[in-house]
Amino acid sequence: MDRLPNSAPLATKLRNTLVQYHSIGDSEWRVAKKTKDATVWRKPSEEFSGYLYKAQGVVEDVTNRIVDHIRPGPYRLDWDSLMTTMDIMETFEENCCVMRYTTAGQLWNIIAPREFVDFSYTTSYEDGLLTCGISLDYGEVRPNFVRGFNHPCGWFCVPLKDYPSHSLLTGYIQTELRGMLPQSAVDTAMSSTLANFYSDLKKALKT
């Protein structure tokens, strides 16, 4: 079991990595899925052998409320159908924490339930917020779960200039599910999961 990293340099590095992803030109992305709520693109990840996914859609709510539903906290379990448990293991200052969470099986359980331990950090970005995370090799792996690994991931949420009560939500996700899985199944699951994330979030914000 590794020791916990120093939170401040990790938070800075994570933020800088996400800002770098956010500046990747449109020509590098390929559309993976499009729904009425969001568009999902992908490009080969530079962190591992899978893809870096980008998801984007407009959400009818203010930035702070949207991010409160996404970042670690009481709201997330209520609406995110993929997440089955979540525990905050450690809390640092400045909106940093380490959380352990589990996800449900996907694609008729071809993808078995997974467990993740992530460092999470929320900070300001332009007129909005960025909430981002990266997995840590920390804590014992619980039985009946495969331990997955999130390479740098995050969500940028900024108010629309002409409609400040609406926000543009852009996510960057690159999850290494690990275990013996066909890559095609992982790619199908990731695109659908990200599109569903938007529709589930929108429903939750309306209640």
TrEMBL record:
The name of this protein is: STAR4 protein
Supply the Pfam families for this chain: START (PF01852)
Q: Which organism is it from?
A: Lophotis ruficrista
User: START domain: from which residue to which, for each copy?
Assistant: 10-207
PROSITE patterns, A to Z: START (PS50848)
Q: Which GO terms describe its biological process?
A: cholesterol import; cholesterol transport involved in cholesterol storage; intracellular cholesterol transport
Q: GO cellular-component terms in the record?
A: cytosol; endoplasmic reticulum
Extent of the signal sequence: none
Question: What SMART domains does the annotation carry?
Answer: START
Give the gene symbol: Stard4
Which GO molecular function annotation, any one, does this entry have? cholesterol transfer activity
